């Protein structure tokens, strides 16, 4: 079969020069790369170089069994643009900086107040090697502090801070986790606002605190949500599956452990550009702690209390948000998803309508037990 | 053919042999001439069936009839046949100027072997023997169909071995059979001693990585293949048969699949294919990930790999080849070594070398794990020939990956598939997915 | 219908997720992309039906065979060359797109020539295979890659981050008039059926093609288009979706596999879509190669006894693709694909007229034979 042999010959003729010519020029072993674990972006003191970038780098060790203590190195530099800073940072390291494993981007609180988020986003989104599933968070007092801290008991190869956000480690109800792509879409969309978790380090302490969040519109001043408001937003956004809520009413004071949360929200359009925000939340769980003895037969009554209490709290927190025009939940999109695009209010009209919206919250309680004791 | 001339001719033919024995017996008006080669025949049989009766029979006529009635009796058609058959262990008898052949062949190799290559837990543990007649006997006892046909061809100019072509007349594809016959006629080799040797001579493409005939020592596999319409080739003196046309999936089945319950054999099949993919791709993936795209794996894993490579003086590509080279050496060595030593050799090689290599950081820990995983999973492939092919292809994939990266590996794998699909085994596509229902008339045909 | 027939159609549909189709649709996300999709599905299904019916009437015959029997040389030779160029371009677009993807996301340090060579070399010899072997390859590669691609789709649909409000918002733009460009992009999804021009050689028996089969194709097309268009919107928001260069890459990077060895779905998506791209190029270039072989009688060109004819288009293909890969930028690629899709919208429905002509002639010829 000369035809087939010919094919093989031709193939070899093509292949051999290619292999000899091309091999070896971009071959770079994994130990010549250094992985960036976190990026911290701060406002710098210098006038002409507004950005200060801090990188946390993994230091590879031969065996994690032999050295369970985490080891990192840090480099930081200020620059006029982020890219410039990173270019200089590359000369600080003998190995190639590899951003493909970056999981957390911490933005300093100061920088956010300067309204530089759009620029940051442009940089982060344009680089193909930064994961869109990395988390974005706000660092307080500064991103550098957060990035450089190693809390006690941290594992090698998996910074403790990741555990707060990945939903596998701690599952606290007060933690909002925002992926980079979520950050981007909230940023670009006018009808939903950005919500970012705040990572705090208190001066003399050696652990993080992640229980507040920061809301900001595309151009406005950031607004801080306190712990309880963060929880409520989390519950409406279905970010959490378990929660602890308390009821303090009519002489009763008990805590409930909620193990299943189902929420629905929608925008009802009334006349004259008046809207109503409708929220329905199913909370199922049991009572986990009480100051007073409880009677199982009175469970309906406790549910009633729980319902009232829940409603009051929700309405209060939401009113606070709505009054200021913040919309981290996305009522704006929900509205857009319900009306034809040519019959919608303009963005300004919507903003006005949203600020004056009626808030209707219905809590459907489902306390099933008073716990293991009465 | 006058008697004198013929005897002279026989003398001529065997004048170089000193083992030809001529026995001229005359007694009581009876006359018998025997020619045979001493080392090839069964003396007891000769004595019992020819010499004793010769002295007991009353007449030459009776003796002649008696000899005709013997089951070992064979007519002569040509002079050349005489020479050939005598060389194979027949005894030439001249009586009343007539020539006959009697088959008193002595074969010491007709015992059935134990399976040694394709061992199974369940099912028969017996393999074929070295003797062709015994093997055909085994097949016939297991496959009771009158349509089972055996044809013989003599191959090898010097050693003149008998080759048997066995097939089921009702099921075999005639075009396959014709090609095989034709190809077998064309083979002109001095020495044919094994069926696998035929494998190389009958194929269209002498340079091919994958076997186009399946070699086996198990009777049950041969029966299974016969029923599937395949052609079986046997060479006398060789305990392995080859079946053809063979497709890729034949090499991935073991007979044991039929001896387990459905779920178990499904599980085993999945395991086997996983092993196949692992042994093919794992080293190449290592090269691709460590040297081209370290962001593919999750961070913890990437860090472990990076950490274990600290201090290794080679780049990943050399590291893989280095370790695989030693693994291949170890495998080869353990085949050649006497059984008593080979266990020690593998221990020394595998355990001590592996540990020492990582201690000296000539290779990373992960690499040692990968190489051993690859070695183990190669053994999962049931037919040995395929395992050899996979070992070669693996190297090619490593080469491609080290030039083109992970994308090259993926594409290289697809090219491998394409190569297999494009290959023919006696007119059958080597690799293709068959329709689920075989009864349904296929709505398309070969172009 | 034979399962191989569905593969031809399916690959063209699924392969477009990485090509420019979603990008073109998002360009018109406020100007009738949704209505174009609906029109595209209807028009496309009709086209598929007509094409399939036509080729079903002549089992085992390729378009060149039919043209040779019914039309004269001056018509069919240039016409087939035009078709060959179109198929080559269709394959080339996928090739260039994927080369760009690989250089951007997998091996940024590698020279672009080398990356494109990987793809070209792996495909080009496959194009010379026999038609049935091409289909067997298609089946095998699909079997290996498709389950994981379905898994990624499942992962996307079940993700908590998928915001259905964005999807609804986008869907409410349905009352816009459709746009030619977006219609062309949707229509292109259905043109897998045109591969029957050559692949009909494989289907030598008359097949059943009833309403059931048509509706299967319609449903698959609807699901594919829906996924193509709405899933990226659900992940990346509606307003600025047209700003994304590779919407589906960004979408797959928004997915996370918490417990798997590979955490970023992006890479799984890229490597398994490489298989689909490979098949898409393989099919298109095989068709193109066969057209050229037929027009120029390549089998008869010999050099020192070897049949070298086949290798002439091979070298031309390699040369042109290498040249264009280095030359084009993302924007030009986008423009070329958009133009090609628009051209196809005109050419392929017009081809139906040609079919009627061929059918008449064939009937006449048959009647003449009977008399």
Automatic annotation (TrEMBL), chain A:
<dbReference type="Pfam" id="PF25198">
    <property type="entry name" value="Spore_GerAC_N"/>
</dbReference>
<keyword id="KW-0309">Germination</keyword>
<feature type="domain" description="Spore germination GerAC-like C-terminal">
    <location>
        <begin position="223"/>
        <end position="364"/>
    </location>
</feature>
<dbReference type="GO" id="GO:0009847">
    <property type="term" value="P:spore germination"/>
</dbReference>
<keyword id="KW-0449">Lipoprotein</keyword>
<comment type="similarity">
    <text>Belongs to the GerABKC lipoprotein family.</text>
</comment>
<dbReference type="GO" id="GO:0016020">
    <property type="term" value="C:membrane"/>
</dbReference>
<dbReference type="InterPro" id="IPR038501">
    <property type="entry name" value="Spore_GerAC_C_sf"/>
</dbReference>
<keyword id="KW-0732">Signal</keyword>
<keyword id="KW-0564">Palmitate</keyword>
<feature type="domain" description="Spore germination protein N-terminal">
    <location>
        <begin position="28"/>
        <end position="201"/>
    </location>
</feature>
<dbReference type="Pfam" id="PF05504">
    <property type="entry name" value="Spore_GerAC"/>
</dbReference>
<dbReference type="InterPro" id="IPR057336">
    <property type="entry name" value="GerAC_N"/>
</dbReference>
<dbReference type="InterPro" id="IPR008844">
    <property type="entry name" value="Spore_GerAC-like"/>
</dbReference>
<dbReference type="InterPro" id="IPR046953">
    <property type="entry name" value="Spore_GerAC-like_C"/>
</dbReference>
Automatic annotation (TrEMBL), chain B:
<dbReference type="GO" id="GO:0009847">
    <property type="term" value="P:spore germination"/>
</dbReference>
<keyword id="KW-0472">Membrane</keyword>
<dbReference type="InterPro" id="IPR004995">
    <property type="entry name" value="Spore_Ger"/>
</dbReference>
<comment type="similarity">
    <text>Belongs to the GerABKA family.</text>
</comment>
<feature type="transmembrane region" description="Helical">
    <location>
        <begin position="363"/>
        <end position="383"/>
    </location>
</feature>
<dbReference type="Pfam" id="PF03323">
    <property type="entry name" value="GerA"/>
</dbReference>
<protein>
    <submittedName>
        <fullName>Spore germination protein</fullName>
    </submittedName>
</protein>
<keyword id="KW-0812">Transmembrane</keyword>
<feature type="transmembrane region" description="Helical">
    <location>
        <begin position="312"/>
        <end position="331"/>
    </location>
</feature>
<dbReference type="InterPro" id="IPR050768">
    <property type="entry name" value="UPF0353/GerABKA_families"/>
</dbReference>
<feature type="transmembrane region" description="Helical">
    <location>
        <begin position="270"/>
        <end position="292"/>
    </location>
</feature>
<dbReference type="GO" id="GO:0016020">
    <property type="term" value="C:membrane"/>
</dbReference>
<keyword id="KW-1133">Transmembrane helix</keyword>
<feature type="transmembrane region" description="Helical">
    <location>
        <begin position="395"/>
        <end position="421"/>
    </location>
</feature>
TrEMBL record, chain C:
<feature type="transmembrane region" description="Helical">
    <location>
        <begin position="182"/>
        <end position="202"/>
    </location>
</feature>
<keyword id="KW-0812">Transmembrane</keyword>
<feature type="transmembrane region" description="Helical">
    <location>
        <begin position="7"/>
        <end position="28"/>
    </location>
</feature>
<feature type="transmembrane region" description="Helical">
    <location>
        <begin position="308"/>
        <end position="328"/>
    </location>
</feature>
<keyword id="KW-0309">Germination</keyword>
<keyword id="KW-0813">Transport</keyword>
<keyword id="KW-0472">Membrane</keyword>
<feature type="transmembrane region" description="Helical">
    <location>
        <begin position="265"/>
        <end position="287"/>
    </location>
</feature>
<feature type="transmembrane region" description="Helical">
    <location>
        <begin position="340"/>
        <end position="358"/>
    </location>
</feature>
<comment type="similarity">
    <text>Belongs to the amino acid-polyamine-organocation (APC) superfamily. Spore germination protein (SGP) (TC 2.A.3.9) family.</text>
</comment>
<feature type="transmembrane region" description="Helical">
    <location>
        <begin position="79"/>
        <end position="106"/>
    </location>
</feature>
<dbReference type="GO" id="GO:0009847">
    <property type="term" value="P:spore germination"/>
</dbReference>
<keyword id="KW-1133">Transmembrane helix</keyword>
<feature type="transmembrane region" description="Helical">
    <location>
        <begin position="112"/>
        <end position="129"/>
    </location>
</feature>
<feature type="transmembrane region" description="Helical">
    <location>
        <begin position="34"/>
        <end position="58"/>
    </location>
</feature>
